[in-house]
Design goal:
By secondary structure, the chain is an alpha/beta fold. The chain contains 17 helices and 9 strands.
Length: 393
């Protein structure tokens, strides 16, 4: 995990919070030679060098000090500049919609796929963990055929989306992910869009809908109302419910972080199997999405997200006002259709428990046929139809 530079008040808040978990990589420092260091070394050399060699070293020492000073200044100037994303490495499998597009939005260089008419009403589809935008490969063409402009961005820590600076905290808290969507819309000058998502993507869509309702024309959310907060995360659940969250507790340990980093591919595949026990996906389907998990920030973002939920790490100050609003479990008033698969093996709330959170036009649909957690990929027609219908509620 990379932090803000030393002396930054934000970093000061994070380090104590992380001492008990030891789950992150720490602060990366790359000190270079300085004029001061060069001066000391040359003085020591002069002091211990007799005769003519000493006179020769006087000129050399001046040159060396100048060189060290120049190197130190150049290095300081380099360190002060944000590091641009590295375009040489790709962490995304080819998209059926052509080369990925990129746009600088907020803290990120966002990679996204796009299809449909450029002047059509906008639909933004948000993926979950540990999945990627290929969940929408069969959803997007249906919507594009209906005239929608469909955007599928990679979230921070996935695919070819990268942070603009190495110094930015690899923060996975929900409010940060939601803010990324607003930044993405602002960068593309999109005033309003239909949002759809599942898992992390559904939570993000819920948050955007609750906090920025003027930006959301309609919402499709798999598993309904997923807005949470750290205080609620402190409440113990019944044993069977806790068991379903085993990976969250695993990520709370250093062993869990190391295990996920070492076995990301196999870990993600296990989650897919548990979350969608009746979905017979093949290796090619999984590997296409697993490529996105090779993003160098993926493990940090994932671990931060789940540790944040348990209160083991604290979020950043710029999101505190948003988190305070989310802690009140705000209602969602935009037109909404929530979906649930009849074979969802992942932890999820009961529809009757969250229906009252949706105060606008609302509909719930149970999708049958052995449909699991990754609903848009398992039943793309049902998901696409929900987007179209929600837009016309």
């Amino acid at each position: 995990m990379r932090f803000h530079p030393p002396g930054d008040s934000t970093q000061a808040r994070y380090v104590p919070a992380l001492k008990c978990t030891h789950g992150f990589k720490g602060i990366i420092q790359s000190p270079g030679p300085t004029a001061r260091n060069g001066d000391i070394s040359m003085k020591m050399a002069l002091h211990n060098t007799p005769g003519t060699h000493r006179r020769r070293l006087v000129g050399s020492s001046i040159l060396a000090i100048a060189l060290f000073g120049a190197l130190g200044t150049a290095q300081a100037q380099t360190a002060a500049q944000p590091a641009a994303p590295q375009a040489s490495a790709s962490y995304s499998a080819p998209s059926p919609f052509g080369p990925l597009k990129h746009i600088k939005a907020g803290l990120l260089d966002v990679a996204y796929a796009e299809t449909g008419p450029a002047n059509g009403p906008v639909v933004i589809l948000l993926h979950g963990w540990p999945y990627d935008i290929h969940s929408y490969d069969d959803v997007a063409p249906i919507l594009a055929a209906k005239g929608y402009r469909v955007l599928m961005p990679y979230a921070r820590g996935y695919g070819d989306t990268q942070f603009l600076s190495r110094q930015t905290l690899r923060n996975g808290q929900p409010a940060a992910l939601a803010s990324d969507v607003i930044d993405f819309m602002d960068a593309l000058k999109i005033k309003q869009a239909v949002l759809g998502g599942y898992d992390w993507g559904a939570r993000t869509a819920d948050i955007v809908s609750a906090l920025w309702p003027e930006r959301v024309k309609a919402l499709v959310s798999v598993s309904g109302y997923l807005i949470g907060n750290q205080a609620a995360g402190q409440n113990p659940l019944p044993p069977k419910a806790e068991l379903q969250w085993w990976y969250q507790f695993y990520f709370a340990t250093e062993r869990g972080r190391a295990g996920y980093e070492k076995n990301t591919h196999d870990f993600a595949k296990l989650i897919w199997q548990l979350a969608s026990p009746k979905w017979a996906f093949d290796d090619a389907t999984f590997d296409r999405s697993a490529k996105a998990l090779e993003n160098p920030d993926h493990v940090d973002i994932t671990v931060f997200n789940y540790r944040w939920r348990l209160g083991l790490v604290q979020g950043e100050s710029q999101y505190e006002a948003l988190e305070q609003k989310l802690a009140t479990a705000p209602s969602i008033g935009v037109p909404t259709i929530t979906l649930e698969g009849d074979a969802n093996g992942a932890p999820h709330p009961k529809p009757e428990d969250y229906a009252k959170r949706f105060t606008g036009k609302y509909e719930f649909r149970l999708i049958s046929g052995g449909i699991g957690h990754n609903l848009p990929q398992e039943d793309p027609k049902a998901f696409a139809q929900a987007v179209i219908d929600a837009d016309h509620l």
